[in-house]
Specification:
The strands form 8 sheets. A 5-stranded mixed β-sheet has the order 7-14-15-16-17, with no helix packed on it. Strands 3-4-5-6 form a 4-stranded antiparallel β-sheet, with no helix packed on it. It is built from no helices and 28 strands. It is 0% helix and 52% strand. By secondary structure, it is mainly beta.
């Protein structure tokens, strides 16, 4: 009711037997983020205001142990870039990914549950720009092991003026950066496939063509293998996106451009000439956010088809197009 303090919880469901666990989150917690492969630890980001300057905001990450309820604070970061690890979650090699401002600039850190953050990579200065209310902003970055995929673009808010983007891959261990692709278009959000052989990006060339998904393959020399290909993203703006565990497709939760109530979940095969498949066709209730079981066989999603909220599962392998060749 009005003025009533609400409790925030995170729910975890076993897609096999339907059992669930609920963890109470702090009142300041943001939306739950990535769950660790051990099934025990969860990280989310909390947006806070600078006490000395209310117009400046920063993000603070927390890690919770779902068994003991203990919280592990991570140093705050005055940046709002998006990090993804293999498959699309902010975890790489058992460590949570997050950002902060170090002595040499904005950097990526890796934090294993129960351990101190370890600096991993510092962003090139030309990748950092002045963002909302003066806070430093970095472009979306994809991490896979020692390799980092990142985009430098001249995009300044107007999609129709002199678009130009360059995709780079940095090998942190070898200390080298390779130019992979340079186009007169906008590229955003590089996301590595779990096997590290493919990258998916948002692609925009002009208003008539609209947004598309670009797929490309990368070899061991950090060079593009073959030609990139595009898949139509349709009249939807994606809310959430991740790779299937077998690296052969993306799962995407999207919201209709013309109707906010039009929410759907799509399968996007990473194959030239393929078409996206609407997994939720005919489903009239909310499908956001959807998530995938670790083995990729079950798609799990929230819904309001019954009175109140509920969580449902779908046998992805039994769906048309769910079993990829």
């Amino acid at each position: 009711g009005e003025g009533e303090e609400r409790e925030r919880t995170a729910s975890f469901v076993d897609p096999e037997d339907g059992s669930s666990e609920h963890v109470t989150l702090p009142a300041v917690a943001g939306s739950p983020g990535s769950i660790h492969p051990d099934g025990r630890h969860l990280q989310w980001r909390v947006q806070k205001r600078d006490a000395t300057n209310p117009l400046r905001q920063f993000l603070e990450a927390s890690i919770v142990d779902l068994q003991t309820g203990e919280f592990q604070e991570v140093p705050p970061a005055e940046v709002q870039g998006i990090l993804t690890g293999p498959g699309g979650i902010a975890i790489d090699d058992g460590a949570f990914l997050h950002q902060d401002r170090g002595p040499e600039g904005i950097r990526i850190l890796k934090t294993r549950p129960g351990e101190s953050p370890v600096p991993f990579w510092t962003y090139p200065q030309d990748l950092v720009s002045e963002g909302f209310r003066g806070a430093p902003r970095v472009e979306e970055v994809g991490v896979h092991g020692n390799r980092i995929a990142w985009v430098r673009s001249n995009y300044d808010g107007d999609l129709n003026i002199d678009l130009h983007s360059t995709l780079f891959i940095t090998d942190v261990a070898r200390g080298i950066t390779q130019t992979v692709l340079e186009l007169d278009a906008r590229m955003d959000g590089p996301m590595w496939s779990p096997d590290g052989k493919r990258i998916a990006l948002d692609f925009f060339e002009d208003e008539e063509a609209g947004w598309k998904i670009m797929f490309l393959e990368v070899d061991e020399n950090l060079e593009m293998a073959g030609e990139p290909f595009l898949l139509d993203d349709g009249d939807y703006s994606y809310l959430d996106r991740f790779w299937t565990p077998d690296s052969r497709a993306l799962i995407e939760s999207g919201i209709g451009v013309s109707a906010a109530a039009d929410v759907a979940v799509f399968l996007l095969p990473a194959q030239p000439g393929a078409e996206r498949i609407n997994l939720s066709e005919g489903e009239e209730e909310a499908w956001y956010p959807a998530s995938l079981s670790p083995d990729g066989s079950w798609l799990v999603f929230p819904s309001h088809r019954l009175v109140g909220s509920s969580i449902w599962r779908m046998d992805l392998e039994g769906m048309p197009g769910g079993s990829l060749p």
